Amino acid sequence: MIDLVVAGAAGRMGGRIIALARESADLRVVAALERSGHPALGRDAGEAAGAGRLDVPITADPRPALARDRVLVEFTTPEATLDHLRVAAAQGARAVIGTTGLSAAQVSELKTLATGIAVVFSPNMSVGVNLAFRVLAMMARALGDEYYVEVTEIHHRMKKDAPSGTAAKMAEVIAEALGRDLGEVGVYGRHGLVGERGPKEIGVHALRGGDVVGEHTIVFSTLGERLELTHRAHSRDTFAHGALRAIRWVAGASPGLHSMHDVLGV
């Protein structure tokens, strides 16, 4: 039995992970976390998730929850994620992190913390998206500099970071495959008289509205043709199921920072 500590337990992703874990014979939610002052503190985590009573109250202190070999599941904010991961590293827990919007400095700290415990970190837990990362690298290498690259994403109106972590990762994968530095060639939206598009630009564009779970389209275009790869998430359960797959994998993994490619064996 794998014991889970779900951070952001009252959030959309936290709730789905709790609900799906309850339906799994090998997973058990033993603790649930929310930020100090959150109105859900003290509520039963199962009831907050609409999954029935679990007798697991939502609390704010991660220290009693993150015992050795328990698996922390994070879909929260960068600051909360690092706060929890510091405790997990100190106490020998494991972690699956799907939090987006981390700065370069925060990712660097995450990597340092992962030297002592097993951590799976991915900006998108979808199996389809992680296969897309592999396919995009292959496409970029095959098409080369003859094709211009644009990445677009659309998410629900409540999403706080832009571009999405997935779009940023896709742009990074493509830039690496093409031998480019995304920091130099990345163009995030266009406005005004910006001039002719540079041949090595990688455009990244974010749209927000409604209740869109997540859609990413990558366009490779040249004179005479255009090739597109699109991934559409119809339900957050696709990310939650991927997270459960990562949880099962990380429970037996060695210390270090791992990706969904490791989980999927691709």
Walk me through the structure.
The protein has a 7-stranded parallel β-sheet with strand order 3-2-1-4-5-6-12, with helices on both faces. A 5-stranded mixed β-sheet has the order 8-9-7-10-11. About 35% of the residues lie in helices and about 25% in strands. It is elongated and about 60 Å long. Helix 3 packs parallel to helix 4. It folds into 2 domains: about 150 residues, NAD(P)-binding Rossmann-like Domain (Rossmann fold); about 110 residues, Dihydrodipicolinate Reductase, domain 2 (2-Layer Sandwich). The protein has 9 helices and 12 strands. With about 270 residues, it is of the alpha/beta class. The model has no long low-confidence stretch (mean pLDDT about 95).
